[in-house]
């Protein structure tokens, strides 16, 4: 399956899906465990996981009666590549913030 940059960005556009990815940075988790982290139905969380799977941002593996999800970060390189030209804007702001913090000390 070929994943486009648009698929990745569309998947990341939703705050629930971003939170799911954050949870998976700590390691693989079951679908039920992930669903328990939200005030959403399990089917709603399953739909978000499906979108992440289609964007190749997560991989799922059935183990017995449970489905385990893990982060697959490779598609995030699209995001990094896209953000790279904008780094100079926040790098300058961080330098300014560091200068102010040093002055206060």
TrEMBL record:
Q: Which GO terms describe its molecular function?
A: DNA binding; DNA-binding transcription factor activity
Arranged from A to Z, the UniProt key words for this protein are:
DNA-binding, Transcription, Transcription regulation
Q: Does the keyword Magnesium apply?
A: no
Q: What Gene3D superfamilies has UniProt attached to this entry?
A: Winged helix-like DNA-binding domain superfamily/Winged helix DNA-binding domain
- The superkingdom listed in its UniProt entry is Bacteria
Tell me where the signal peptide lies. Answer: none
InterPro entries associated with the record = ArsR-like_HTH, HTH_ArsR_DNA-bd_dom, HTH_MetalResp_TranReg, WH-like_DNA-bd_sf, WH_DNA-bd_sf
Domain annotation HTH arsR-type: ranges: 1-94
Q: Which Pfam families match?
A: HTH_20
Entry protein name: Transcriptional regulator
**Which species expresses this protein natively?**
Paractinoplanes ferrugineus
User: What lineage does the source organism belong to?
Assistant: Bacteria, Bacillati, Actinomycetota, Actinomycetes, Micromonosporales
